[in-house]
């Protein structure tokens, strides 16, 4: 089992920045990759960014966030964390952002979601 705890959402003005965090605990050795998805009202959940947990830390971004968002990671003793630095935020970035961890056996774990609202 993998537990995911998210933090960092909130309200920000257009052009502003936010940083989301997600800490994974439990069977973290089974995770690869880990990342973020988002879902706006009335829309399907979409990829924001993922990062592999291996040495290379290969990243993948959704087209709408390339050049504005950056995903990074950190290994601690019993946790694996990913961060999403969001810059130049736009109103269309407003959504619930979900942390995701893909584990062996095609098991997918999701966080509880954190609201990001971009509005003046």
Q: Please bin the fraction of helical residues.
A: under 10%
Largest β-sheet summary: 7 strands, mixed
- Global structural class: mainly beta
* Series of H and E elements: EEEEEEEEEEE
Show unreliable segments.
none
- The coarse silhouette is globular
Helical run tally: 0
Averaged pLDDT: 94
Radius of gyration: 14 Å
* Extended strand count: 11
Strand content: over 45%
Question: Termini separation (Å)?
Answer: 40 Å
Topology record:
Layout lengths: L1 E6 L2 E3 L5 E9 L4 E9 L6 E6 L7 E3 L7 E7 L3 E8 L8 E9 L3 E4 L3 E5 L2
Parallel strand pairs: 2-11
Antiparallel strand pairs: 1-3, 3-8, 4-5, 4-9, 5-6, 7-8, 9-10, 9-11
Q: What can you tell me about this protein's structure?
A:
The chain has no helices and eleven strands. By secondary structure, it is mostly beta strands. The mean pLDDT is 94.
Keywords, separated by commas or semicolons:
120 residues; mainly beta; seven-stranded mixed beta sheet; single chain; four-stranded antiparallel beta sheet
Provide a quick synopsis of the model.
The chain has no helices and eleven strands. The protein has 120 residues and is mainly beta.
């Amino acid at each position: 089992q993998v537990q995911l705890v998210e933090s960092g959402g909130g309200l920000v003005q257009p052009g502003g920045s936010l940083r989301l965090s997600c800490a994974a605990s439990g069977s973290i050795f089974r995770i690869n990759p880990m990342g973020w998805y988002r879902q706006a009202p009335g829309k399907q959940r979409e990829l924001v960014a993922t990062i592999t947990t291996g040495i290379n830390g290969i990243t993948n971004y959704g087209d709408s966030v390339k050049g504005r968002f950056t995903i990074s990671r950190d290994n601690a003793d019993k946790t694996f964390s990913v961060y999403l630095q969001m810059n130049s935020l736009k109103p269309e970035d407003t959504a619930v952002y979900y942390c995701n961890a893909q584990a062996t056996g095609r098991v997918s774990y999701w966080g509880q979601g954190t609201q990001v609202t971009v509005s003046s």
